[in-house]
Amino acid sequence: xxxxxxxxxxxxxxxxxxxxxxxxxxxxxxxxxxxxxxxxxxxxxxxxxxxxxxxxxxxxxxxxxxxxxxxxxxxxxxxxxxxxxxxxxxxxxxxxxxxxxxxxxxxxxxxxxxxxxxxxxxxxxxxxxxxxxxxxxxxxxxxxxxxxxxxxxxxxxxxxxxxxxxxxxxxxxxxxxxxxxxxxxxxxxxxxxxxxxxxxxxxxxxxxxxxxxxxxxxxxxxxxxxxxxxxxxxxxxxxxxxxxxxxxxxxxxxxxxxxxxxxxxxxxxxxxxxxxxxxxxxxxxxxxxxxxxxxxxxxxxxxxxxxxxxxxxxxxxxxxxxxxxxxxxxxxxxxxxxxxxxxxxxxxxxxxxxxxxxxxxxxxxxxxxxxxxxxxxxxxxxxxxxxxxxxxxxxx
Length: 396
Ligand SMILES: *Cc1c(COP(=O)(O)O)cnc(C)c1O
What we know:
The chain is an alpha/beta fold.
């Protein structure tokens, strides 16, 4: 062998006696085959086999298997973002002429996918009341092939009666998907409640450090997984093993991060509710929250994200109060180690009547900072909300 060839060919190294707790990062586009015949027959390896880097390496399989185990499913598919996970489910299930039902409290880009991508291609959608429960029967017709759920709902945290929705949807021959990003499989297992697609933005609690984007879809039906993988192969969707390695690292600490964030978030929510009318604090674990009983029935815990309604009289002061915070950052996304505040204009994303809480709602995501520093940031905001709420009740 000449030097140029020696630069390319790898020399065998011993693996005997080597063991590590880390999951190796297996990068690949090309998968190499032992002989021409196994290359010719590579299609027979199926969605679990290795044929091309886009469709998975042992690193991606490790994360898929971990999520499958947590959800008590049969397989998981990984895609480049949470939004892509929703899109792959919709594109797999829905054909022109079909209808998908989407709750009014869905993550806004989910509605955007329906309005701006699916509808121009002949796939219809209808927005339903997230609190409909078994009443979703009124929305069913033979064209409905998928019912989407998200619980708690974006920003207003409405809890859906998922078992009741699943029952009705299945009676009518429709599949059910659930955006489970808030709860993670640690606090809610959609497949255990009959859901067909457990979708998550791994970007949030699994990644856990605000530095990666990824989504997952876990199913308990092997043919459904094959269909998802077919869609992904046609669209060319895959994930980078380097990012999967980060997600695997994040997953190891997710339990302790989530336990911490959920405890601190609930402490802060209770503290805020001592100062302002409790109905302004939107946190499912507060007994004053309208969906509390359903949440208690179905969920094993809460996470670090909740919301505070900003009365109109406090809206003008909010931007300066947000800018003045020191421990919190201002930004979208959540589920990382840094606590975040995001003022949301929910009214513009709601289709069914006026939004119940009016204008601005402040979304609060708790990270791992000292709670005393978080309270120091929140206190002036809470005082402004309390003062505005007093003025509002004077006026009433
Ligand atoms: C963030 C988020 C998504 C989208 O995830 P990306 O990875 O940012 O695309 C979907 N659903 C919910 C509930 C989210 O919070």
